[in-house]
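Hi support team,

I've been running sequence recovery on a batch of backbones for a student project. Most finish fine, but this one hangs at about 90% for roughly twenty minutes before it completes. I'm not sure whether the input is malformed or the queue is just slow. I've pasted the structure tokens below so you can try to reproduce it. Let me know if you need the job ID as well.

Thanks,
M.K.
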């Protein structure tokens, strides 16, 4: 591991759809799609555990803005993979915001079939440029620009899931919480990797781990 430099957070306040649109640059069509996605998320959350029920009241900050901030870190990336996509975060939000961009596509990778059914309903209803994969991430071979994940697994396990994508040249952008330092340290037991840590713009406790190179840790 090298060049890991945690930064002070610089969160930007989002309280509703209007403030989200102002910060994220989302137009009326994107806001309509995001609102419908929020409704579907709430409906399906009553049947299965997709997100914490209490977080739905803070959808625009906790989910929409937390996901959307990734686009500014890779503005030219066209093909994304979201690992452990379950609730569609961040992948569905990214697909909604870049719906009109020619060539933009999101691979939603989820091993649980019932969550894939939810994702497919969202993709179909909103006509998103996204593919739902009912598969384990490490079993797929997809060429993507960015591989991402949120609330998927501790970093040392997440890097294993992302390895096939990173080996093909993808950059990793992983949304993490306040325990990121310990996760980075634990990951060095398993991996030799190059990463830096960026502040979340949605949550002062959050960080984004950007991974550019991955290899197995050398044995002592």
């Amino acid at each position: 591991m090298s060049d890991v430099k945690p930064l002070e957070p610089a969160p930007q306040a989002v309280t509703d759809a209007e403030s989200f649109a102002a910060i994220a640059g989302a137009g009326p069509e994107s806001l309509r799609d995001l609102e419908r996605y929020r409704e579907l998320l709430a409906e399906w959350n009553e049947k299965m555990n997709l997100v914490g029920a209490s977080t739905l009241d803070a959808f625009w900050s906790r989910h929409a803005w937390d996901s959307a901030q990734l686009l500014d870190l890779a503005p030219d990336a066209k093909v994304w993979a979201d690992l452990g996509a379950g609730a569609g975060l961040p992948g569905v939000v990214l697909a909604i915001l870049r719906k009109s961009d020619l060539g933009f596509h999101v691979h939603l990778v989820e091993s649980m079939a019932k969550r894939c059914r939810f994702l497919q309903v969202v993709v179909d209803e909103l006509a998103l440029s996204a593919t739902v994969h009912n598969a384990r991430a490490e079993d797929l071979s997809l060429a993507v620009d960015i591989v991402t994940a949120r609330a998927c697994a501790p970093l040392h396990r997440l890097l294993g899931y992302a390895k096939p994508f990173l080996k093909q040249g993808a950059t990793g952008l992983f949304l993490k919480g306040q325990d990121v330092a310990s996760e980075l340290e634990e990951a060095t037991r398993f991996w030799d990797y190059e990463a830096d840590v960026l502040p979340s713009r949605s949550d002062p406790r959050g960080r984004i781990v950007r991974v550019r190179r991955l290899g197995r840790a050398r044995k002592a």
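--
Follow-up from support: It reproduced on our side and the slowdown came from queue contention, not your input. Residues 30 and 96 are 6 Å apart (CA to CA). No action needed from you.
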